[in-house]
Structure formats: structure tokens, C-alpha cells
Predict the structure.
Amino acid sequence: ILRYQDRLELSCACVSRAMNVLEKLKPCLENELELVSTLHELGLVQTKLRKLDSANRNLNRALDMKRHLQSANHENVNISSTLYALARVLSLCKPAQLERSEILLLQSLELERNAVARASTYQMLARVTLRQGGVESKETAQKYLNEALRLHKSVYDNECHVNIASVRHQLGCLYAQTSCTSSS
């Protein structure tokens, strides 16, 4: 709740305290699932605070634990959200690790079934692709954005929904960038 209220320092402190408590509890599945969830949340808060090294460490730790839990056939493990969060951190790092970010986003797409989460992943892929540059980057980014738009439209009845507007904005910026480049 504190993260959603942008009370990030307090959120970070609370999540850190929860981490300390969870790490002292005896290992059991319930505690391990809670610990992984708390690590993921701590990574998200640290990303918003631009503590990218810490966010990277905590999200990688959460991802490793989730993969371990998944390999032990635990169904309540959402790896795709952590892949997405980690890809975001890598795209924000200085220097950005765009190739690794792209790989994680593609892995996230393979696992994610939620249409809104998939659309967000396609939007992030478009941003990463554009930043990587190259001859085909704008065309590929446009394909990703069109898929994000299609997914959002399949979920929302209202063309004015903020997620649809966000994709349309990115498409417009891409179009304007392409038009300016081709007319010069």
C-alpha cells in the first residue's frame, strides 16, 4: 500500500523489516513463498527509489527462489512478473543492459497468460528495442506496440482507457520519429 501511495522510503523500511522477520523463521513452504514475495516487493520499491544495484540483487534472488520452487512443482509461483521487473531494472541501469533486458522480457512473454501483463511486456519490449537501435528496430517496436494495443482492446471496452491511450501515444511518437527521419 505504501508503494502505491509513493511513500517509498517508509515502504522500503517496512518491507526490509518483513524480510528480517521472514529470514529468521524456520524454513517451510509458506514462509518461503512469503519470503519470495517480499523480496520481489523490495526489488520493486528499490527500483522506484533508483537503488538499482539493490533492486537487481533482490529481484535476482527472488527469481532464483521462484525457479527453485517451480522446479519443485509449486503452482503458486509467478516467475513472469519478476522477469519483467528485473528487465525493467536492467533497462534503467547505467549503462543499460538492453540485450539482457530483452531476453528476460521474451522469457516473461512465454510464461505470462494475463492479457494486460502481456501487453505491458510488449510495450516494454518496444522501448528496449528502440533503444537498441538498428535497422529494423522501429519496425519491430511497431509490431510489439500493435500487439500491445490488440491485447488491451481485447480486455477493455473503452477506447479511452489509460492503457490504450498509452500504447497509442507510443505509436504516435514512433510514427512522428519515423516521419521526421524519413523527411530529412
Summary: The chain has a mean pLDDT of 91. The first helix runs from residue 8 to 24.
